[in-house]
User: What shape does this take?
Amino acid sequence: MTPETIQENLKAIKYPGFSRDIVSFGLVREIQINDGIVNVYLELTTADPTIPEKIAADIKTTLGRLEGCKEVKVKIEVNAPKQASKAQKNDESPSPNTLAGVKTCIAIASGKGGVGKSTVAVNLGCALQKQLSKNGGKHVGILDCDIYGPSVPLMLGASGRPELRNNKIIPVENFGVSTMSMGFLVDDETPVVWRGPMIMKTIQQFAQDVDWGELDILLIDLPPGTGDAQLSLAQTIPLDGALIITTPQAAAHNVARRGARMFEKVNVPLMGVVENMSYLESSDGSRQEIFGSGGGEATAQQLGIPLLTQVPLDPELRIGGDQGIPITIGSPDSNAAKAFHTLALQVIDMIAK
Assistant: This one.
């Protein structure tokens, strides 16, 4: 009996109300074994007292069956969100750990900055909304988790302050896509100078205290790296998959590959790779590979996942982002827009399977 075997057995314990286990949610902080006595330490955020009780009981039952286990002790540190506690007192929303009306959550991620994650998130969101609306689908949402440099509101053309209704934040909507971002909560000239715990708390509140309504898909636009924001998100939101964004050059796809490994460690499926800024197409149809070639394909091969699409460089893509009219809305017949619509159909197909 080792900490590794204990952790493998803990993967059989589901978080109450979810299909994901407590290990993949990142709740298990430490495992100690001393003369047959197993100590398990966890940390979670909830205002529902029955959840830690249920998890502790399941741990004791599961580990108690192991050969050589004399006793199981469980210690759970519970962090209760303030707004969620108020909501419970007023008999409003259920558990703060649920996204009740959201069917599928997908992370838009890369270990590297500057590869166009927000551009992909906004244009994919609009493309998904178009495709789903044809079949009577519900809304699509974008959660902008780039706390230091939020750009989704600008690119989506969404502005104003979110409303508060029944102690819940109502997302801002444009082009049928709902979005929540730090960009709605601070002035353009105000820097966000926060340490990790504040970032984690804000992301948890975005997930727990926002009324997303009925969504088919929620895209989560992540900041670069594999730090507090990413780990907090994996613990707070039941991610159904992650799209890895890269550009062709080695400086980007080497880092993107390492960033993707984080999701493997928390059991979030990798859906595929999107290569952004793949090439510049001239008026005569020839292509200039400004950032080299092959990075997206190499990343996909090394991760064992498909290269879903290659998005070309297009001035209209930048102009649309600056003006708040995504290219999938403003120039739907462009090659870049077609790449996003192809990606949207692939995502819908993967979800259906």
Residues 117-134 form the longest helix (18 residues). The chain has a mean pLDDT of 82. Residues 58 and 216 are 31 Å apart (CA to CA). The chain has twelve helices and 15 strands.
